[in-house]
Amino acid sequence: MGDFNQDLNRPQRSTLYKYLISYNFIPLIHTYHPHIPTWKRNELSSQIDEIWVPQQTLHICTISTITDATGTTDSDHHIIHTNLQIHTKPTK
Asked: At 5, is the pLDDT very low, low, confident or very high (cuts 50, 70, 90)?
């Protein structure tokens, strides 16, 4: 199936990317932090990690954050996350 890592700042577009865009999904990291890398090794860096959400749910997503994983997981991939603000009424 191949590697899903793709830097949206580069011109090539994978089939998965085209599929997500065609169904109105939005890349949160690229939307809010278009130039901050999510992966880094030595002198190389890239924004290859992403959270995709349907465009119609963008209003319930907080601005995503990118955190260096040093001391947490020690991965060369940063930790990315967002919160969904879902308000529901209690059921009786």
From this structure: confident
Count Cβ neighbours within 10 Å for each residue of 4-15 and write b for 16 or more, e otherwise. Answer: eebbbeeeeeee
- Asked if 38 and 77 count as a contact pair (C-beta separation under 8 A), the reply is yes
Triad 10, 15, 21: Cα angle to 5°: 75
3-state SS assignment for residue 31: helix
- Return the half-sphere exposure (C-beta side, CA atoms, 13 A cut-off) of residue 21: 9
Cut 0.85: pTM above it: no
| Mean pLDDT score, 62-70 | 93
Of the candidates 41, 40, 92, 89, the one whose C-alpha atom is nearest the C-alpha of residue 66 is 40
